[in-house]
Design goal:
- By secondary structure, the chain is an alpha/beta fold.
- It has 14 helices and 11 strands.
- Strands 1-2-3-4-5-6-7-8-9-10-11 form an 11-stranded parallel β-sheet, with no helix packed on it.
- The radius of gyration is 39 Å and the shape is elongated.
Length: about 400
């Protein structure tokens, strides 16, 4: 009954009496209502008889005012976003695009790029090798759908994968300001590559697109061929360092017939053979817009001469042709020399590191004398005897305006 009377409602009902509350009896030692006592007879544990134990701290009933729990981020993503979010107390104007980007990063659980958290009112964004990953690319693409300031975007080396490629393709269907887009080295694969190609079809502003090193094959080349046939703004397409074969080359060449705006097409370091390259060049020879073609590190081989000659003889727009490392041999020389005699638009020709003999190199150099258009010839990586070097010196003396790289 003593404990019940100590905790009676009138003892704790008001704050004014909180310090007058009677403390509970000590747990051990002494007399009274001790837990160690036996029925109030004073007979405790025989081992404790005559032993004085220290008094435990006295407990009091306190009135505690409830305080609202302070909100704290639940994980590292929330912590970073909270840290990067501009101070709400600042009077500076907020950028809705930056706020939307932070919100997208939170939704997709990705770490924001700090330079984009203050403002996306930019014209150029370069995030090369920043480790965006698929989630980071998806978050950024979501915001760029409605962005109206960015004109150049470089996302090289961010391993965004197929999901990132799909997001970028979707972004291209909505964005109306980006002119230059680089998605090189992002492991887009078939799904991501085709999504980007589909996004290009209806895009009305994109001028240049870089898709190097994305494991794109013939199916993706076919998708880009459809894009080239429909798009009327893209002027430069880089599909180098991929896995495009003969079928893809045929499809891309055929698309050029319906395209009169593409100027630069890069297919270097693919798996093109003589059949695919011949078909491509045969179709490209009628293009009136192409000015630069790169076919280096593919397989023209011994029988590629006629296709190259026919292309140069017919085409009147290409000024730069790169056929380095294409395994061309002396068997292609008659057609190549004939083409150099007839072309009047070609300005730069790269045939470096092919398999021409010393006599073949001399024959090519002599063909320059009759050519009035070529300004740069790259024959580096070829062995030349003193006789051929003498021919080189004579050509340089006679054609002072021509740069010959050896």
């Amino acid at each position: 009954m003593h404990a019940m009377s100590a905790l009676a409602p009138d003892a704790i009902g008001t704050p004014s009496r909180r310090n007058s509350i009677a403390p509970p009896a000590p747990l051990l030692g002494g007399g009274g209502d001790s837990l160690a006592s036996d029925g109030g007879n004073g007979g405790g544990d025989p081992l404790n008889d005559g032993l004085t134990l220290p008094q435990l701290p006295t407990l009091s009933v306190l009135e505690v005012e409830s305080q609202p729990a302070e909100e704290s981020p639940s994980d590292i993503i929330d912590i970073l976003i909270a840290h990067l979010t501009p101070n709400k107390d600042k009077a500076a104007a907020k950028d809705p695009q930056a706020e939307a980007y932070l919100a997208a990063c939170k939704v997709y659980s990705t770490i924001p790029v700090s330079c984009l958290t203050k403002s996306l009112n930019l014209t150029t964004i370069s995030l090369r090798n920043r480790g965006l990953g698929s989630s980071g690319a998806v978050a950024l693409a979501h915001v760029l759908k409605s962005n109206r300031t960015v004109t150049s975007l470089d996302l090289t080396g961010n391993a965004m994968g197929p999901a990132g490629g799909v997001a970028m393709g979707d972004m291209l269907t909505c964005n109306i300001t980006i002119r230059d887009l680089v998605l090189t080295d992002n492991l887009l694969g078939s799904v991501g590559g085709q999504a980007v190609a589909d996004g290009v079809v209806d895009n009305v502003t994109l001028k240049s697109l870089g898709m190097r090193r994305n494991k794109l094959g013939d199916s993706e080349a076919r998708a880009f061929a459809r894009s080239l046939a429909a798009n009327r703004t893209l002027t430069a397409l880089d599909l180098g360092h991929n896995l495009i074969g003969n079928v893809g080359a045929c499809e891309l060449g055929a698309s050029l017939v319906a395209n009169d705006v593409i100027r630069e097409l890069d297919l270097e370091w693919n798996t093109l053979g003589i059949k695919g390259l011949s078909a491509f060049l045969n179709a490209a020879k009628d293009s009136t817009s192409l000015t630069r073609i790169s076919l280096s590190h593919n397989g023209l081989g011994e029988t590629g001469g006629p296709a190259v000659a026919a292309f140069l003889a017919k085409n009147n727009s290409v000024t730069t042709l790169d056929m380095a490392h294409c395994r061309l041999t002396d068997a292609a020389l008659p057609q190549l020399v004939k083409a150099l005699d007839s072309t009047y638009t070609l300005r730069e020709l790269n045939i470096a590191h092919n398999l021409f003999s010393d006599a073949g190199v001399a024959q090519i150099l002599k063909a320059l004398i009759a050519n009035n258009s070529l300004k740069r010839l790259d024959i580096s990586g070829m062995k030349m005897t003193t006789v051929t070097r003498a021919v080189l010196k004579d050509v340089r003396d006679e054609k002072a305006g021509v740069t010959i790289v050896e």
